[in-house]
Amino acid sequence: MIELPLLSRDAAEAEAVAAAGASPAACCGPLTRETITAADADVFARKLKALADPVRLRLVSIVAASEGQEACVCDLTEPVGLSQPTVSHHLKILTEAGILSRSKRGTWAYFRLVPGALEAIAAPLVNV
Which of 19, 64, 97, 101 could lock 50 by a disulfide, CB 3.0 to 4.6 Å apart? Predict the structure, then answer.
């Protein structure tokens, strides 16, 4: 019977690499694509923060599902069960984040999904 020394996994791997005549691998692989800049990360975070609310997610979903991806504020209060001023506050945040656009017709405000806004928010996450 031959007694073999116990090696840790790291030591065993290093020994196998050395025996094969190769150099040990770095702990991390090289980056394979460009990373997000600090300025872009700030903009991205503001947009995510605007969406990071259940009511605002529902509002975006309702607008996106509406005919022409547009809805009147009068049609948005009942589905979310909130008062008109509260819904308007959420819509203002979504508008400032560039997710919705606002147009006024008479006494009513209509909100439309900004073309490409959701795709632009998802883009930095697609290849993560």
Answer: 97
Query: Has residue 66 got a pLDDT over 70?
Result: yes
Question: What predicted TM-score, i.e. pTM, was given to this entire model?
Answer: 0.70
The more confident residue out of 18 and 38 is 38
Q: How many residues does the chain have?
A: 128
Q: Which two tokens stand for residue 73?
A: 């504020």
Mean pLDDT of 45-71: 94
Q: Write out the DSSP string of the chain.
A: --------HHHHHHHHHHHTTPPPPPSSPPP-SPPPPHHHHHHHHHHHHHH-SHHHHHHHHHHHHSGGGEEEGGGTHHHHT--HHHHHHHHHHHHHTTSEEEEEETTEEEEEEPTTHHHHHHHHHHT-
CB contact at 8 A, 113 and 63: yes
